[in-house]
Amino acid sequence: MTVLYFAHARRIAAVTQEEIPVAAPLSSSNFWDLIIRRHAGMAPLRASSRLARGNDFLPPDAVIAPSDEIAIIPPVSGG
Q: What mean pLDDT do residues 9-15 have?
């Protein structure tokens, strides 16, 4: 699976994207567990960030396939 990091998530992970090998589909919760194991600093973003596949935000109960490209989009502000 390809994971794309945006805004604060990009600063924490220190990468813009990465390939993570996964053998089976993951729930959104298991996806976050995996990301936090790789990048412990992401834990505070879990509750406030959205996950997206393509142009669609994922619901909390989404299933993520090993071939998916998933974006982690933290809340942003600005003007």
A: 97
Domain count of the chain?
A: 1
Of the candidates 69, 47, 51, 68, the one whose C-alpha atom is nearest the C-alpha of residue 59 is: 51
Which residue type, as a one-letter code, is found at position 67?
S
Structure tokens at 50: 């959205």
Could you tell me if residue 68 is inside a domain? Answer: yes
Token pair, residue 14, equals: 């220190």
Q: Which residues contact 30 (CB under 8 A, 6 or more apart)?
A: none
For residue range 15-39, list pLDDT tens digits in order.
999 999 999 999 999 999 999 999 9
Contacts of 66 (CB under 8 A, 6+ apart): 1, 21, 22, 23, 24, 25
CATH (domain of 13): 3.10.20.30
